[in-house]
Amino acid sequence: MKKKIISMVSIAALSLTISTSAFASSGTVERSVNFRSAPSTGSSVYQLISKGSTVDILEKVNSYWLKVSYNGKVGYVSTDYISGSTAPSTGSGTVTKSANFRSAPSTDSSVYRLLKTGTTFQVLSKVNNYWLHISVGGQQGYISTDYVSYNGGSTKPPTTQPPTVPSSAKADRIIAHAKSLIGKVRYEFGANRAPSVLDCSSFTKYVFGLEGVSMKWGTRFQKDDGAAVSKSNLQKGDLVFFWTSKAGTINHVGIYMGNGQFIHNSPSFNGVGISSLESGYWANHYISARRVL
After folding, report:
1. Which of 105, 198, 256, 270 could bridge 203 with an S-S bond, Cβ 3.0-4.6 Å?
2. pLDDT digits over 145-185, tens only?
3. Contact status, residue 190 vs residue 199, Cβ threshold 8 Å
4. Domain for residue 28, yes or no?
């Protein structure tokens, strides 16, 4: 009888594991991350998951947290440390603006061809907030989410979205959010404890996130977000990038405000401040800009 009970428990546990993983997608830990009991930095930590480990993504809770399964245990990790599909996702999509069809989810990858506006495709998976894994005419590849509309959960045509808020109005609000944090945010390198202790890129991530613009933490990710824009064509809300230690290597980011000024979270202020892009230190250390609105 005892053996029967043990066998039944084992079968139940196995069934639970199968049912959990069957509806999950995999993700890879890019940097060691705390595996937590709840989607909050105030929750208890089960353990530290090492870089390179694989987790099963069960659900995207919000822009900041994933519900995952790791070694048979369910918990939560920050989205900033995970790469991979954020949810099991198949469906259809349409190219809204001609875009490169690539061999990998990176702007450095080779281009198969240009997909013209109106081209339809099958969504195989959502790699992250920036890339989709798709199939076009039997060929698989990747396309930026910036140039498509898609439905990740069914084969129905993409639903019509309500008109978006004009970028200039959204930029004004983002800048207002940033200015409201002057004197309230403390700078700390490598910190992402919003809204009080941040570094330069967790500051931009947090401020843009308040207006529904999702970005990863880290200048190495943000420097490829959106579209490149020349310094002479900067608009309010553009991300501006700089070097501070090694010439030509991006390691600082701010938000362009217009009139040759930008706002950023910097150790020189020990918090949020406004600097000139036209003269002085930052003008001499400017590298590039990206438009994400």
Report:
1. 198
2. 888 887 753 333 333 344 333 367 889 999 999 999 999 99
3. yes
4. yes
